[in-house]
Amino acid sequence: MRRCNKLNCMRIKMPEESYCSYDEARQIIAALNICTAGQYRSRYKEHAGLPSNPPIFFAGKGWDCWYVFLSKAKPDLYESLSQAQIAARFLGISTQLEYVARYKEDSRLPSDPVRFYDECKSWRHFFQEDYEKAYPTYEEAKSAARRLGVHTAKEYKNRYLADKKLRSNPNEVYAKTGWKGWGPFLSDELVAIYASYEEAKQATKKLGIVSVPDYRKRYYEDPRLPSSPEKAYSGRGWTNWYDFFDRQKSKFYPTYSEMEQAVHKLGITSKDEYLVRRKEDEKLPCAPWSEYASKGWVSWKFLFRFFKPLFYSDLAEASAAAQRLGIISASDYRAKYKLDPRLPCDPKSHFLPWSGWPNFLGVERDRNYKTYEEAKKAAEKFGFKSYAEYRDGYKQDPRLPSAPYRAFKHKGWISIQDFLSLEIAPDYSDSYPCLCDVYEKHLRFQTNYAIRRMALRVLINGYFHELNLPDDPKFLLLRANKFNAALYISLIESQAESLKQQVHTSISTFFQWVLDEECTDVDGDESVVLNDFRNPFSSILAGFAKGLGYSKLGQTNKPSLGYEYILRARNYLVPDYEMSLSRRVSLSQLEHLQEFFDSRGDWLDVPLSKIDVDDPHTVWRKLERIERVVAGKRRRVVVYQVWSPVRFVALYTLLRFPLRGQQILWLDSGEADREVGVVDMETGTIEWRKNTGHLALRGTRSSTPQAAVQKGINGYPKFYCTTNKTGARDQGYEVEWIPEDLAYWLLVLRDWQEKYSPLDYPTPWTSIKTHAEINSEILKSRGSQCFLFRQDKTGQPITTATAFQTTLPKLLYLIQRGGEDLARKNSQYGPRYLSDYTPHCLRVSLITAYIADGDAPIHIVSKLVGHAALVMTIHYVSLKEHQMRRPMQEAEKRAEYTACDNLVRDVLANGLQSQARNLIATDGNRIFFEKSSTKSANVIFDWGICPMSAAACNIGGDLIENVYAAVEAGYLGQKNCPRCRFFVSGIAFLGGLVSLANEIALEIHDESGRYQAYTAELDELESAWYDASIKDLPFDRELDRKRSVAQQQQSAAKLEVLLRDYGAVNRYVMGCVKAIDHTESENSEAELKLVVSEDLKEMSFRASESTYHLLSEICQNATIYRSANPSRALPLISEMIDRMAANNGLRPAMYKLTNAQKLAACNQLNSLLMSRLHSWERIDNLISGKLMILDVDEYQAGLTPITSEIKAIFSNYVSLTSGAHGDENDE
Fold it and tell me: Which of 317, 320, 626, 667 is 20 to 30 A from 345, alpha carbon to alpha carbon?
């Protein structure tokens, strides 16, 4: 548990002459309208001349008391203690907490009688509970304390009030009558702590405790471990916690001054900026206030004190500076004052006396139009069609107000439509009450109320009123009444393109319902429409709806936020967010969140007794003299508040899972389920236990679990979404996957809600407040629910505006770097931060990232987001030009692989004979071309076909005395296809053969190096052995010599096998080349390409001088052929690329990537290098260091520097791996 110290920040010490005098201070606080000491302590920083502690600062300089200082009359308090005691007893107050909450019910009671009355010794004394009422003996008190079931002095302090005869200080009360310590007082089970420091250290290590918070929670698991080892072993071996846990000290700056210099060097000027950018220097800690608590830490303001600007000394200088900037209004000042660092953010409180903005800015006091009519005429000139257009263009006339409804509120204001002279379409709905009533009955079974009600108004105003029809819905259904199809069609066509079909469908559906309900004769299972009626919308206008479809976008027009920024945002909220569960991160550790989410709704009033001070997820604070309504009157009281993580978890969920914002806020906590998930704080896993809460099985749908986090297959957590917009009947859906970190925070929020915002019963859906009207029948069918994101004990879920409207733009603003336009500050009236990225954009961004960048199958993502149709998921994918270009380039490369697939399908369908012209026959496989073979026996590989079901490896080798031996094992293992006599390959498999040959060539190159090293070592040992033999001396390295002989022979044998494999593959490659050459001959289609073993020439292997080229080919092939294995090539080529980067002053990055990312990065880098260097020879020179990147940039001055492009490739993949916030300047 951590108490929020936000209200107790230290202030930078200033010279005494910098502060105001006593009388000046009184004038300043009067101007600031500070009325209480509490308000003064929280607001004195609004003026630089006010001291933090006026009673001490003005002692001897005029100070009397707070009442005089605040210009308030002194209260007439009870003069004697006995009078105050009688008054408190009359109010029924009997405890300290009750007194603090209610003493203002009598204005003559002091806030703290113990301080106010010298003769009052304690609160017990004030309530006339003296020590004679305590247990008279130590033994009686000890028995009573043990009945409380407490085990520590801290627990006793929290619970001793449960027995009125127990005292808070038994160690003093019974000091001379038997007191021996807290241990004997609370328990008979006395266990001596470890005698030595080393024993305690080993016991701690055995428990797996590695941190101080972990030790504080778990030391009791071993009764011999002390609660405070630093005290227990002081002078007996204790040095520090690092030594106690056998941990290396952090690599942070050792002193505060070094850390401060590093911060200033980076140009960091605020706490928020520090938390975002600290990773640019790995020696900066994430919690400097903790790391340097005893090394000079004062406060954040002190850390950034050198960046504090010196404001103008008087009002005249500041006024002149503001006028030089061309500032003409208060809002304009807030947008531009930072252009001059000496201008304060709030000049009216900084410079006293203040004479108003007009005088300060040198503008006319009343520059707006004086009358409503004058402003109205001026606005008419611009032809504004809406208030939105007015807001965008009113500055064209400097005398037009930004908010005319405020400027002319008492000067003739009517409405915005009248002000802009807009025509208001008449509404004749009141003239058709019967039609409206029937329509409302129809709506009980429908959704999308807004569109349907708008459709009714269109019908009434444009059709019923236009034709003067009676107020009867059945009138249109009578065959005798002519239906004016032309008027109706023109009415629908006059609607907006996107509304035509919806309006027509709403009207047609309504009249079909009226026809079924009131114009149909039902007899049993048979229903017959009465002869006099028909639905003209489905008869006369049959097919009309089909022509109303409008051209929709192929993909959503919502901007897609880059996945890099989403990762950065997650890491800002929770550093190393993916480790939340394994590390059991607590809310008290995320101190920055209490400043980020610091609105009035983020702090919940609770009684002090309800605060769980031992809970690491409880963050609380104490506010003094806060106005609250007590007994119907506004009073100032002491308030205890806990910080609510509701908005934090909601925003984190939005960033972590592709849900709509409203879907997130309607998730269920699971408090009414039969089984709930619980975080095991010891193992860092999620377990499933029976729900023992008072709400268990009290929900209307208790037969099926409703919690967002549920038990899935094999005990893994799964996700359940309560609602689904595109699903049938608006029901929820489940997904057999949820990120562990998200599951952890959802469970943390559920536990917090149960503790500080408990429900008496599940909340009925019919009682919730929604932004849009929802069909009451649908709400009834949903029953009741325990909303996870509820705002208080009422059970109401918070709204999307509360959860995301201000928090998302603010988060994007804090994480953006120079040149990024994620969000901006708002200089106008409204939210402080604005962004083009909405909560729905994050849903688009996550879906796009999963499909376009992560290659996730669309059907899986569709299940993840709850789409009823795949086309809806495709619509959400927002692709940019480069996201389409790269896959299309890869698609062209895969065309060769597709040609092989076509051949394979033909072989599987028609046998080998159908493709004989494209295959190579050998002595061993020729029989399969001459005779019809079993089609199902053909097994396909990237490099060829096995016509023996891949099951004849035991007889696929050479002929030995009338018996065929097994295939000789090699690079591919026992199933070494190129060495098998049955193996069939051909032109279509040429790419796969070359890919396999490249892999074998790399193995040969590697093994050749090992063989040469063993040979050199053996030669050296043989020479030494020979010298010893000549001199008749003992040879003491005989064992090494024999080992080297064995290693050389083993390497030679492996090298021989690999060379044979390479020769076999090369034989087929050459056969394919020969076959391609023969295809142009006249009889090429009829001839069978025969390559017999007798014609093979002896082949030798020479290692290529371009190792990098070989490695690149292997990596390229791995993206095309399934059987390609780049595991040997990836580490080698990654090392080469990192070495090249280091040689050119770039930061190596390949070693940070996963194998899949290394493969992608290598291929992308090779494509770039080939496009810029145009040959493998020049690429090899660059990799080897013979050519430098700066040389390339110098010769290609007109292009984007290749240095920047390589950096971009590295930073892209590194950010995806670690979400690093490091500096992108690698030089």
Answer: 626
Q: In whole angstroms, give the CA distance from residue 754 to residue 691.
A: 12
Burial code (b: 16+ CB inside 10 Å, e: under 16) for 370-381 equals eebeebbeebee
Q: Which residues is 637 bridged to in the sheet?
A: 626
SS (H, E, C) 1109-1167: HHHHHHHHHHCCCCCCCCCCHHHHHHHHHHHHHHHCCCCCCHHHCCHHHHHHHHHHHHH
Q: Which of 52, 69, 86 is the last residue of a domain?
A: 69
- Total domains in the chain come to 9
Structure tokens at 219: 């030391």
Q: Can you give the length of the chain in residues?
A: 1227
- Average pLDDT over the chain reads 77
Q: At what angle do helices 858-865 and 839-848 cross, to 10 degrees?
A: 150
Please tell me whether residues 319 and 303 are part of one structural domain.
no
Choosing from 49, 69, 89, the residue where a domain stops is 69
Amino acid at site 538: S
Q: Encoding tokens for residue 949? A: 């079901």
Supply the pLDDT for residue 618.
92
Q: 842 vs 661, 777, 882, 926, CA distance in Å? A: 10, 31, 20, 61
Domain assignment of residue 249, yes or no = no
The answer on 610 and 461 residing in a single domain is no
Amino acid occupying residue 501: Q
Residue 567's identity, in one-letter code, is L
Backbone CA torsion sign across 1204, 1205, 1210, 1212:
positive
Burial of 775 (0-12, 13-18, 19+ CB in 10 A): middle
Burial class for 619, CB neighbours closer than 10 Å (0-12, 13-18, 19+): buried
For the chain, percent of residues with pLDDT exceeding 70 = 80
pLDDT for the residue 156: 78
Q: Is 143 exposed, middle or buried (0-12, 13-18, 19+ CB in 10 A)?
A: exposed
Q: pLDDT per residue over 685-699, tens digit each?
A: 899 999 888 888 887
Residues 278 and 345 placed together within one structural domain of the fold: no
Q: Determine phi and psi for 937, rounding to 5 degrees.
A: -80, -5
Show the CA angle centred on residue 1004, arms to residues 998 and 1008, nearest 5°. Answer: 150
Best-predicted range by mean pLDDT (13-22, 740-749, 915-924, 930-939): 740-749
Give the whole-angstrom CA distance, residue 1000 versus residue 1019: 28
Contact present, 47 and 32 (Cβ < 8 Å)? yes
Provide the residue range defining the domain that includes 267: 256-307
Grade residue 3 by pLDDT with cuts at 50, 70 and 90.
Answer: very low
Distance CA 765, CA 758 (A): 18
Contact (CB, 8 A) for 1152 and 1217: yes
Contacts of 1218 (CB under 8 A, 6+ apart): 1152
What CA dihedral angle connects 396, 401, 404 and 407, to 10 degrees?
-160
List CB contacts of 1139: < 8 A, sequence separation 6 or more: 1148, 1183
Q: For 47-86, what is each residue's pLDDT tens digit?
A: 778 888 888 888 888 888 888 888 887 777 888 888 888 8
- Cβ atoms 815, 569 nearer than 8 A: yes
| Alpha-carbon distances, residue 235 vs 193, 231, 501, 840 (angstroms) | 16, 9, 85, 61
The answer to whether residues 636 and 715 belong to one domain is yes
**For residue 523, with 0-12 CB atoms within 10 Å meaning exposed, 13-18 middle and 19 or more buried, which class applies?**
exposed
Residues 6+ apart with CB under 8 A from 83: none
Q: Is residue 335 part of a domain?
A: yes
Helix %, strand %, coil % for the chain, to 5? 50, 10, 40
CA distances to 779, 1012, 1040, 1043, 1056 from 1046, in Å: 80, 14, 10, 5, 15
Least confident window among 161-165, 774-778, 974-978: 774-778
pLDDT of the residue at 632: 58
In a shared domain, residues 433 and 472: yes
Q: Are 850 and 919 members of one domain? A: no
Q: Give the pLDDT of residue 888.
A: 43
